[in-house]
Amino acid sequence: MVRVLFVCLGNICRSPMAEGIMRHLVEQRKLSHAIEVDSAGTSHYHIGDEPHHGTMRILRHNGISLSHRGRQFGKIDQQNFDYLIAMDSQNRRDMQAVLGANEAEVRLMLDYIPNGFKGRDVPDPWYTGNFEEVYAMLYAACNALLDEIVATKLSA
């Protein structure tokens, strides 16, 4: 089983959106038996909260359902997940601080999109309100990540 964790600041906008998109893609490719997906936040601000209404709206608009409650990223996640993926550089630094010396294990979400996105942050729609732009970025990145997982972890 390959396990993927998406992480943002509050776990109510970007990371649950990525979780919903990735689960949807995994189901479409009939890989639910081989890939598990979750999300978390680096902060404690929204533990137990449902995703932001803008996140839920854009997911529903695209035919994706999501049942999720916010939780905080912790050191135990390092043991439980094969992929630790941060939405932005600050999230990555916060995750690395929790993990200690294992900083190479945390990748940026947009690094999975080819052609000029490497090193870029997923903008936080909590501040920008642009859930559509974020959805498009996350959809492209999730597709590319899933291709990588299939090619490197699931092919025999």
Automatic annotation (TrEMBL):
One of its GO terms (molecular function) is protein tyrosine phosphatase activity. Its EC number is 3.1.3.48. InterPro entries: LMW_PTPase, Ptyr_pPase, Ptyr_pPase_sf, Tyr_phospatase_low_mol_wt. Residues 2-148 form the Phosphotyrosine protein phosphatase I domain. Keywords: Hydrolase, Protein phosphatase. Gene3D superfamilies: 3.40.50.2300. The active site is at 8 (nucleophile), 14, 124 (proton donor). Signal peptide: none annotated. It comes from the Bacteria. Pfam families: LMWPc. Belongs to the low molecular weight phosphotyrosine protein phosphatase family. This is protein-tyrosine-phosphatase.
